[in-house]
Automatic annotation (TrEMBL):
It comes from the Eukaryota. Residues 92-114, 155-203, 694-727 are annotated as: Disordered. It comes from Mugilogobius chulae (yellowstripe goby). This is THAP-type domain-containing protein. Residues 155-164 have a biased composition (Polar residues). Residues 177-187 have a biased composition (Acidic residues).
Length: 727
């Protein structure tokens, strides 16, 4: 037999059975308030706990309606004192709960609303948190859904007051997010779901509940995520777990965040479920998605296209840029500078260091906007410094390499690091600049060999110089051998000039530094493969390979270290900052720093093995023109820097972004290239726009003619010079 609520929130029981009524009256437990005892009511406090079928669910806050056992009789007298509060409230938020009052004799009308987030069978964490959100939405009939865009949620952190209500500016509408204190679960008070409950599992037991409370409480951003379909989520909330009736369902979405509110109009069951935690009005998933895209060097625009193709809900690009400015880019800059300072402290312990430097332009050709100069410590092959230079800072893209090198060397000087020598390419400005600062400079062999190889390939296309094609590979190898096997500059020059005698089948030389070829003597049976003395081909080869500038550069070839690792780093930069994409100054700088973190972490990867054997792969590089080559297979790269950046963002930057933003603002950002030109209004630009193949409105009868920009008169916009002459 069921009974209802009175005005004060008590549950009342109709005394319909005359026999039961007489027993209650005779026992002096309850006195009728009307002349007819059959029409009177009894409060639930006159019944014992075992008189109800669902007292455990009622005590836990999962239902507001008690069901009486058949034949139950009130046996408790003196129930005027307020009942004690239950010792365990599992993840429930009681809204507008009335203060307990003595049991009245007259019926009253009052309600109590109970709000829960999860049922008892799904409680798995030892510490749980319940969030309540105050929002006004329209609800419809049972089993209906109301979709609301949660526009009040912001990506900017807001300060929470001691009362749990978020303190936001009064000028715009606010959505108050209240948080309850965490409380420990008392397993002794947990009542397991009954078979009629939707959360009931046949194998559930107290042992299982105790295992649930022992799960690791990992940080929110380290939780495993899944792609869940909306139809699958609706199945969890459309049916009331208590009365099995259809419920009113409300949905709120903000980017990747979704919230469902379930209200049962039949038994007043209520619960709210959030798909992800919220940190000071910012959904964690939105911020982490922006961080994952940025830190991995991916493109948010491409990621957004992928998500739209599969109808996966994400936030907008403006939100991504706001995340980048406030949290992500300050975190990248802070981590790079911290790691760089630690690396510089290690280098201070050494007497002298050898570095390599090279510049990378942000676009192909000679009109680059950005130039990034990279300085590498050659012994460890780690990136030491990256300087980003904009072309308008130095008067043109040709001067960016010298400026980037100067800034990097000033950094070493400010940190009292002794420089032994530097390995670079043969840039003329760099050569002059280093000579002025008395810094020993060596040239990278690959850069010089590449320049000479292009000239040899062009020379071999002449009809008289066909023999050069046969000697091209040997000439390249001879340059590497001359540089690596020599200790002094004169020895490198002597070995290099011996090439002219060698291609004529002469293997003794006049230079005492290298009087004889190092290879064993062989008798040649094919005289056609040698250059003939006095031939035009020999003259052109000798003029190209042993001129004064080449001999001076050969003497400065590096014997120990090369800049091949720097070229490998430039290939990594392409993944983080493609040349086909335009980035702002700070965005380009942060992406270069990310590439540096990735390279430094994976530069010393070992070669992969399988069953004790090292692995190789066969490749066909373009420069070998179809010839195969074996390349070692390295172990998979690691991304520990991404995890460290995530922890930095969520644990430090998000809590206090101002300090990190101020650190990033200390970087001098040059003005845009367009700032040096006079700004023209948009209307004037549109008015002056004439397509090369467009026609004016109207036809020949109205006197209109086809306008072409190729013959346009500069004095009269929109009228060609031919038309002016005809007029």
């Amino acid at each position: 037999m069921c009974f209802r609520l009175c005005k004060r929130g008590h549950i009342i029981y109709p005394a319909e059975r005359r026999k039961a009524t007489r027993k209650v009256v005779d026992a002096n437990i309850w006195k009728p308030t009307t002349r007819s005892a059959e029409k009177s009511f009894v409060c639930e406090r006159h019944f014992s706990e075992d008189s109800f079928q669902n007292f455990g669910l009622f005590k836990s806050g999962f239902t507001s309606k008690l069901i009486l056992q058949p034949g139950a009789v009130p046996t408790i007298r003196g129930a005027d004192e307020p009942a004690e509060a239950p010792t365990y409230t599992p993840r429930a938020t009681i809204l507008d709960a009335p203060t307990p009052s003595p049991c009245p004799t007259a019926p009253s009308k009052s309600t109590r609303t109970v709000s829960t987030q999860l049922s008892a069978g799904t409680l798995k964490l030892h510490h749980v948190r319940s969030r309540g959100v105050q929002a006004t939405t329209d609800t419809s009939d049972s089993c209906t859904e109301t979709e609301t865009s949660w526009l009040q949620l912001s990506s900017t952190p807001m300060k929470a007051t001691t009362s749990g209500i978020v303190d936001r500016p009064r000028k715009r509408p606010r959505l108050e997010i209240e948080e309850e204190e965490e409380e420990d679960l008392d397993i002794s008070d947990i009542s397991l779901p009954q078979p009629h409950d939707s959360t009931y599992e046949p194998g559930a037991s107290l042992t299982e509940v105790s295992e649930m409370t022992e799960m690791d409480t990992a940080e929110d951003f380290e939780d495993t995520k899944y792609i869940v379909f909306e139809s699958c989520l609706k199945k969890l909330f459309q049916t009331c777990p208590i009365c099995k009736q259809h419920c009113n369902l409300q949905r709120r979405r903000f980017g990747t965040f979704v919230s469902f509110t379930q209200n049962c109009p039949h038994c007043l069951y209520h619960r709210k479920w959030d798909s992800q935690p919220i940190m000071e009005s910012t959904p964690v998933g939105n911020l982490q998605l922006s961080a994952a895209v940025y830190f991995s060097g991916a493109s948010f625009v491409k990621m957004e296209k992928i998500c739209k193709a599969m109808k996966l809900q994400v936030h907008q690009y403006d939100t991504f840029r706001r995340h980048s400015r406030l949290f992500l880019e300050p975190a990248i800059y802070h981590k790079w500078k911290t790691d760089q300072q630690l690396f510089l402290e290690e280098l201070k312990k050494k007497d002298k260091i050898a570095v390599g430097g090279d510049m990378r332009a942000d676009s192909p050709g000679h009109s680059a906007k950005f130039g990034s100069y990279t300085l590498m410590e050659l012994e460890s092959e780690k990136i030491l410094d990256i300087q980003l230079v904009q072309s308008n800072e130095v008067g043109g893209s040709f001067y960016m390499e010298k400026e980037g090198l100067r800034r990097s060397l000033d950094l070493l000087q400010d940190n009292n690091i002794n420089l032994d020598y530097i390995v670079t390419d043969r840039h003329t400005q760099v050569k002059t600049f280093l000579r002025g600062r008395n810094i020993t400079q060596y040239y990278d062999v690959w850069h010089m060999e590449k320049g000479l190889s292009k000239k040899l390939d062009k020379l071999s296309k002449d009809k008289e110089c066909q023999l050069i094609k046969k000697w091209s590979a040997a000439i390249k190898n001879h340059m590497y051998w001359a540089a690596s096997s020599s200790k002094t500059g004169p020895e490198k020059v002597a070995k290099w000039t011996s090439l002219i005698n060698h291609i004529q089948n002469v293997h003794t030389h006049d230079d005492p530094e290298f009087p004889k070829c190092a290879h064993p003597e062989k008798v040649s049976r094919d005289p056609s493969k040698w250059f003939q003395p006095g031939s035009l081909a020999l003259y052109k080869v000798e003029k190209l390979l042993v001129n004064k500038r080449v001999l001076g550069d050969v003497s400065k070839l590096s014997s120990d270290h090369q800049t091949s690792s720097l070229e490998a780093f430039h290939s990594v930069v392409i993944r983080f900052a493609p040349k086909s994409v335009v980035f702002p100054f700070v965005g380009m700088m942060c992406r270069l720093y990310l590439a540096g973190m990735h390279f430094n972490e994976n530069v010393k990867r070992a070669q992969a093995t399988s069953k004790g054997k090292v692995l190789f792969k066969v490749a066909y590089p373009k420069y070998k023109k179809g010839k195969p080559t074996a390349k070692p297979v390295k172990t998979k790269p690691t991304f520990g820097y991404v995890t460290e950046l995530m922890r930095l963002v969520f644990n430090e930057v998000f809590a206090e972004p101002g300090r990190f933003v101020d650190q990033l603002k200390s970087v001098p950002v040059p003005e845009d290239l367009s700032a040096q030109h006079e700004k023209v209004s948009k209307d004037e630009v549109i008015a002056a726009h004439v397509s090369r193949f467009s026609r004016a409105v109207g036809g020949p009868d109205q006197g209109t003619e086809t306008q072409h920009t190729a013959h346009q008169d500069p004095e009269t916009p929109g009228v060609s010079g031919v038309q002016r002459m005809m007029e």
